[in-house]
Amino acid sequence: MAEETQKPEAAAPPAPAEEVVVEKESEQEAASEKPTDAVVEDKPAEAVEEEPKVEAKDTKVTESASFKEETNIAGELPDPQKKALDELKQLIQEALNKHEFTPPPAKDKDKPAPEEKKEEDQPATSAAETEVKVETEAPAPVEVKEEEKADPPIEAPAPVEVREEEKADPPVEAPAPETVMETEVVEKVSAADDDGAKTVEAIEESVVAVATPPPAEKPEEEASSSLKPDEVAQSEEKPEEAEVPPPPPQEVSIWGIPLLADERSDVILLKFLRARDFKVKDAFTMIKNTVIWRKEFGVDGLLDEELGNELDKVVFMHGFDKEGHPVCYNVYGEFQNKELYQNTFADEEKRSKFLRWRIQFLEKSIRKLDFSPNGISTIVQVNDLKNSPGPGKRELRQATNQALHLLQDNYPEFVAKQVFINVPWWYLAFNMMISPFLTQRTKSKFVCASPAKSSDILFRYIAPEQVPVQYGGLSRDGEQEFTVADAATEVTIKPATKHSVEFPVTEKSTVVWEVRVVGWDVNYGAEFVPTAEDGYTVIVSKTRKVGPADETVISNSFKTGEPGKIVLTIDNQTTKKKKLVYRSKAKPYSE
């Protein structure tokens, strides 16, 4: 025993050496793939020897604070990532062959039924065994007494006959049912002792009478009959297994794309791999859990459900960012409406409906994404916290946390950027509350902006013509002179300065323009200046003070038959910088 205990102690030191090699490899890989190390914190319950790895990766995450999307083309992946993708495909193929992507509750329900039957069968058999044991144990001592009592009065020849019977008995004793014979003999002999009138011949006749019928065969038949169902079941199962061919591989799709089919499947698998830092087994487990959850939650059927349109102003898709990602706006301030809040979060049933609505909305948005290797398969989330209910709203907090869990566990790498605008003071506490549920990779996508900086932050990622007017942009509903295809220009106006914008005009044309200053509170005017020196300047719009609530966007036009230019003048007399956004176009006309 001492040697056995010493052997593991002697074998222990090499393990850290191997881990050091893995750390070096992971560090070398991380140097080339800096964004993939962020999810290490998802698994804190690891061995003590792995703690140095976590610390090393944490330092790398702080260095790679800015997030950049990686390629989805398999041929352009680094070799370790290619290998991980191939290994994941193999695991998925094996799981599909074994039909492992099925919800476990169905199996659990089937298992208890046979177990209960077995438990019901066991008492019956045990009762039968106890009866047999009682019968076998009781006659054993009685037989000895009978022989002792029967020996003195019986003459010499009588014992010889009894011995013959005893000789005839051993072959009967070999089978199990001898006990029944012994009990009958005991009963008759005991009766003879009580009467004192029966002779040995009567005993012999009773013994022979007991020996002649075949009761010994009944227990054998019972035993054989009790074994026959099991044997028959086994014999029936074996040929069935041999005859029935193995079922075809299971077909599993996520977001309308099979797990193993084409290049689009690689994009799906890479999302799960990146969410688990290219740990193949963890990514496979995540995929498996996601498929099972989607079946249990009924995601595919959820797409056709009618869940109402009360929340259309709370969450909506609008435009694209500068890289082509669809933009989703989440307006929490809408929940200041008490009726809407109560109808959405008052009880568990309503919160469950809200969660289903949110999943339905996300599923419909995902179905519009392009999962080709060169396509865009992520979304930009804009979260407007202006006038949003504070952390004291327990129902909203519960629904938010539940949604975060589901989205992070089942929708990996679908968010390219999380932009929080109009952030209030209490958001820091809220951020600390949700932070434990987010991976470091997810946190690297977060951008926050105060109310004064919200438009600037949005314009950093989204062009002004794509931003809704309520957030400082030019995009409006309904038919407009301009569309999102007409690009806008951004200008920052310094405090206490004037800024002029000029639109050139050709002969016989109509110039149309849109202009807005975020927050306005400036003086605005427009005029036409002809190119000819003897021409007259035409005032298109008199200079006036535009307040924050006066107009969001000023639209105007000017028709002229001579060349010149339209000059817009914005006078910022405040002590703050102002963001100016404008665009124009000229439309020729004929008389």
From TrEMBL:
Similarity field: Belongs to the patellin family.
SUPFAM superfamilies: CRAL/TRIO domain, CRAL/TRIO N-terminal domain, Supernatant protein factor (SPF), C-terminal domain
Protein name, per record: CRAL-TRIO domain-containing protein
Localization in the cell: Cytoplasm; Membrane
Species, as recorded: Gossypium mustelinum
GO cellular component: cytoplasm; membrane
Major subcellular location class: cytoplasm
GO biological process, one term: cell division
Domain of life of the source: Eukaryota
